[in-house]
Amino acid sequence: MNWLTTRRHFALMVAPALIIYSLYMICPILYSLYYSFTNFDGVSAGGFAGLDNYRQMAQDDAFWTSMRNTGIILGIALFLLIPLGFLLAILLSGRVKGSGALRALVFAPAIIAPILVGLIWIFILDPKIGLVNAFLLAIGVPAHPQWIGGPTLSSYSIGFVYLWQQIGFVLTIFYAGLRMLPRDVMEASSLDGASRWQQLRHIQIPMLRETFGIVTALVVTGVFKVFELVYALTGGGPVHLSEVMVSYMYHITFTTQQYGYGMALAVVVFVVGALASAATFLDNRRKGEVR
Amino acid sequence: MTAVLDRLATKRALLWALLLGVVAAYAFPFLYLMLTSFKTPSDALAVPPTILPKVWSLENFAKALDTPGVTAAFINSITTAVLSTVISLVLAVPAAYAVSRFGTVSGRVFIVVALVTRMVPPVAIGVPLIGMMKTLGLTDTPVGTAIAHTTISLPLSIWLMVSFFEAVPAELEDAAKVDGCSRMGALIRVVLPVVSGGVAVTAIFAFLASWNEFLFALLLTAVKAQTVPILIANFQTQYGLQWGPMTAMATLYSIPVILLTLVLQRRIVAGLTLGAVKG
């Protein structure tokens, strides 16, 4: 085929997507990166501030709280969401009647608007009108924990809601991975007398290493984007105690209008998120080499 | 022998019970939202709450639909999502085809860049995006919001479409070319019909991304182009604590999406796993 026509075709077909994406995504990102070195407030142009915004961050308690809270959600995602999602995928991969319908049902929260997911859980978790505390009262537990809106439990609750929202998605990917494993390996191993647990431990989990890597990367990226759940469930309060990194960034940027500082936070969220993804990716690769 | 069979049956029944329990617990929060939407507005806020409505009532729905701007918001949500889906597909299909067929380095780089930028939280591009939309006169219009939503759905759409195109053997186009089709002709007449299922999956994902999106809609719309998620969030603040009508709105907004997934479950799951597993 003629080289020139191929090149021209390629350019013509990719160009529209590339232009729109650069214009509305790449350019804004570069702008934001620049703003992070200024004290732009949205009205006056704002002068160049060097690393001032980043220095301010180091002394900002609310920022560190938001980091810690994001860490809590990340912990719940890594140590509960992924293992539970895998376990459910294993359970549903057995030839159980109606498992297709069950999978569809479990998948549903992943396609409801995240803001509505937050709303749904207000009716469960709210200390006054929520069902959990009503249940505790009904069985005679006098305590009245502030699952959301209190100073300590909110982030754990948000992490739990995130688990509820994402587990169908995680399960679906694991399920697809399990289905792609060659059947004969499993059959041969059970002929050789391997127990179910041994098959899981020595065949399925090692062979799904790549799937685990993908799921982990997706989950980690997702955690650093959690916003609507916090917006709906606690609004970041009280006094920023339940803020996650993105919701705090939203507050600084759009409520207090410190654009420069807000964008510095954005840069840090991106870098921390990217580092976390890279770390899980490398960890997964290292484990692969050990085996 | 019967003992073994019995044990197997018991095991299976136990597994069933376990799964059913998990799923029931799982579906409950959403079910409870729907039940609450059928309570009377004051019962929705009762302390302590009851699971079933004391009186089944449609008052919350009536109140919700009576709120100013509800119809407009539903129309906006549909318009924005359809526009964004169309823009995504028009941009993504040729780009993905080029990347999968001409497979040049720049195409791969584009994909990787798109994946990395997915890690940028949308809040981060809010400020420059608002500025640009103002300059273009697109703030508070469905077009502006749809373009913003396209930044989210475009990388995913290209990603999915590349996987679908790669599954089509190149011989198919070679044959079309021998028969006198141009490259473009081959794409439109031969390849696109083969991947039409993939295009449908990609469209569903682009649609859902826009339908459910909250932040850009919050930043870029004021009154005229407001979408339903923003309206629902406003129930919490603007109209005081209108919890009951809010549950009715939430039910109305999520039911179509849930029905859609139940009907198209196989396709959605296929698209999702293709996008994720092939990555």
Write out key terms for the chains shown.
heterodimer; A: 291 residues; mainly alpha; MetI-like fold; B: 279 residues; 12 helices; 78% helix; 0% strand
- Largest interface, C-beta within 8 A: A-B, 94 and 88 residues
**C-alpha-based Rg of chain A, rounded:** 23 Å
CATH topology of chain A: MetI-like fold
Distance between the termini of chain B: 48 Å
- Approximately how much helix is present in the residues of chain B? over 70%
CATH superfamily of the domain at 68-240 in chain B: MetI-like
Largest sheet of chain A: none
Query: What is the string of SSEs of chain A from the N terminus onward?
Result: HHHHHHHHHHHHH
Task: Report what the structure shows.
Chain A has a single domain (46-290), classed as Orthogonal Bundle (MetI-like fold), CATH 1.10.3720. Chain A contains 13 helices and no strands. Chain A has helices at residues 3-35, 52-58, 61-93, 99-107, 114-125, 131-138, 154-180, 183-191, 196-207, 209-223, 228-233, 245-255, 259-290. Chain B has 279 residues and is mostly helical. Chain B has a domain at 68-240: MetI-like (MetI-like fold, Orthogonal Bundle). Chain B contains 12 helices and no strands. The radius of gyration of chain B is 24 Å and the shape is flat. The two termini of chain B are 48 Å apart. The model of chain B has no long low-confidence stretch (mean pLDDT 84). Chains A and B meet through helix 1, helix 3, helix 4, helix 5 and helix 6 of A and helix 1, helix 3, helix 4, helix 5 and helix 6 of B.
Briefly say what this structure is.
The complex is a heterodimer of chains A (291) and B (279). By secondary structure, chain A is mostly helical. Helix content of chain A is 74%, strand content 0%.
Could you outline the blueprint of secondary structure elements for this entry?
The complex is a heterodimer of chains A (291) and B (279).
Chain A: H1 3-35, H2 52-58, H3 61-93, H4 99-107, H5 114-125, H6 131-138, H7 154-180, H8 183-191, H9 196-207, H10 209-223, H11 228-233, H12 245-255, H13 259-290
Helix pairs in contact in A: 1-13, 2-13, 3-7, 3-10, 3-12, 4-7, 7-10, 10-13, 12-13
Chain B: H1 2-37, H2 59-66, H3 70-102, H4 105-117, H5 123-135, H6 142-166, H7 171-178, H8 183-194, H9 196-212, H10 215-220, H11 228-237, H12 243-278
Helix pairs in contact in B: 1-12, 2-12, 3-6, 3-9, 6-9, 6-12, 7-8, 9-12, 11-12
